[in-house]
Amino acid sequence: MKPRRVVITGIGAISAIGRNVPEFADSLREGRCGFAPIELVDRTKLRFQQAAEIRGYKAEDYFSPKEATMLDRFAQFATIAAREAVAEAGLEPGGKEFRRATVITGSCVGGQTTEDQGFDDLYLKGRPRINPLIIPKTMANAGASRISLEFGVNGGVYTISTACSSASHAIGQAFWAIRQGSADLAITGGSEAMFSMGILKAWEAMRVVSTETCRPFSKDRRGLILGEGGAMMTLEALDSAKARGAKILGEIVGFGMSSDGHHLTQPSVDGPALALEAALADAGLEGGQIGYVNAHGTGTVANDPTEVKAMRQVFGAHADKLAISSTKSMHGHTLGAAGALEGIATVLTLRDGFFPPTVNFTEPDPECDMDVIPNEGRPGTAEYAFSNSFAFGGLNAVLVFRARDAV
Amino acid sequence: MSDDLTKRVIDCIAETQHLEAEKITVESSFEELGIDSLDGINILFAVETEFDISIPDEAAKDIRTVREMAEGVAKLVAEKASSGSPS
């Protein structure tokens, strides 16, 4: 089969800076930072205090009481985002389009928050038994499976867990599946809800979470801020999307991945550079055609200069003309959902002709000397944009988006 | 099988299934209450916790009605009392 063009026909997102895509888009435009003191666990036991939680979230607003007890928070976020994307795509649950659809999601932590509570009952409270629902609630594919059940999806449904690249890997696989013809429709993205004491204490011990705020590319950056959320998009072959009169929001034109093969947590320049090059090659583009990059930009001491070096290596002189930003400075680092939330931020950037800022920026760092759109977003158009994800374990994934006007 | 025990079993089912206890009687079947196999496992967990008993897999697999559940629980509660094991 001839490779098919792959378009985005629906997007959905829930995060600290918006319960849906219109709210998310407004926040990105306004540079609204979603960080606040942690409420979901006892923060007096933690060295870091800030996080990007979805304040006031109530499962009952989205699910029946029984459904809510069957789903960990991360699977709820996956479902909520998928509902918004599918509705925007104009698809009805149970519709015939889902027969040859695929669901590919990303999650790093999965349902470990549920597991944490169960193990607390077992080990700490000394209870002789724990809730059996921990098994189906904890599985990393719980979100993907729920989406499949809700919409009646009959194609391949699976979940990729590659730390902070999970969602980008997932979207990349979904893009390739449609391009090569093994699926006609995809619901793809990622979700994460990591706020349990066990997980936060482990992050604290990693010493990469900022004890104040997240300042990507800023000289005084102190680390990342964890965020929860979910983001999903529907992908379709251009021809079938057009045939059914679907609204087209953008296009995915390339996906590249690589492994550092170097160190479990220390980033390298070569690994990300290979993924950037692979993405360009997959899209059949030259570096000079990329106008915006939604950077991985975690705000850790190690990531940001490494990412800038990798981009300079790949883009050469064009790097000086390239606008990049880290929207993690607003919605936090959502780990396995990051590539999806940032992928949608990239789609919105191209659709709306507005480059979102890197907020909380105070001081330029000579080691991160690119245009990082500090603190205030600005109008700007691009035909093509990258969304970067570079994960612990040395796993890199880069998606290439194209503006809908160009489709 | 006391009324009190039956009521506690019904309350376990009502709570895990998000049903009104008044709508569940000792004659209700799991099928008519919309209880599927996964729900059943969750109810077993709730009942085990409520009565501090351990329901063996063999005994659990044939339970289809509230009455069967209550009878099975009554038997296990009686066994626990006669063996004098601390609860």
Short description:
With 407 residues, chain A is α/β, with parallel strands linked by helices.
Major β-sheet profile of chain A: 10 strands, mixed
Instruction: Quote the CATH topology of chain B.
Output: Non-ribosomal Peptide Synthetase Peptidyl Carrier Protein, Chain A
Percent of residues in beta strands of chain B: under 5%
Radius of gyration of chain B: 12 Å
Extract low-pLDDT stretches of chain A. Answer: none
The best one-word shape of chain A is globular
State the domain count of chain B: 1
Oligomeric organization of the protein chains: heterodimer
Strand content of chain A: 15-25%
Name the average pLDDT of chain B.
92
Uncertain regions of chain B: pLDDT < 50 for 5+ in a row?
none
Biggest sheet strand line-up of chain A? 5-4-6-7-1-8-14-13-9-10
Count the strands of chain B? 0
| Biggest chain-to-chain interface with counts | A-B, 11 and 12 residues
- How many strand segments of chain A? 14
Q: What structural category characterises the helix and strand content of chain A?
A: alpha/beta
End-to-end separation of chain A: 21 Å
**What level of helicity do the residues of chain A show?**
25-40%
Compressed to H and E, one letter per element, the order of chain B equals: HHHH
CATH arch. level architecture of the largest domain in chain A: 3-Layer(aba) Sandwich
CATH class assignment of the largest domain in chain A: Alpha Beta
Descriptive overview:
The complex is a heterodimer of chains A (407) and B (87). Chain A has helices at 21-30, 65-70, 73-88, 112-124, 134-138, 142-151, 166-180, 197-206, 238-243, 270-283, 303-315, 328-331, 338-352, and strands at residues 6-15, 36-37, 50-51, 101-106, 157-160, 185-192, 229-237, 250-259, 290-294, 323-325, 354-355, 378-379, 384-391, 395-403. By secondary structure, chain A is α/β, with parallel strands linked by helices. The model of chain A has no long low-confidence stretch (mean pLDDT 97). With 87 residues, chain B is mainly alpha-helical. Chain B has one domain: Orthogonal Bundle (Non-ribosomal Peptide Synthetase Peptidyl Carrier Protein, Chain A), CATH 1.10.1200.10. Chain B has helices at 3-17, 37-51, 57-60, 66-83. At the A-B interface, α2 of A face α2 of B.
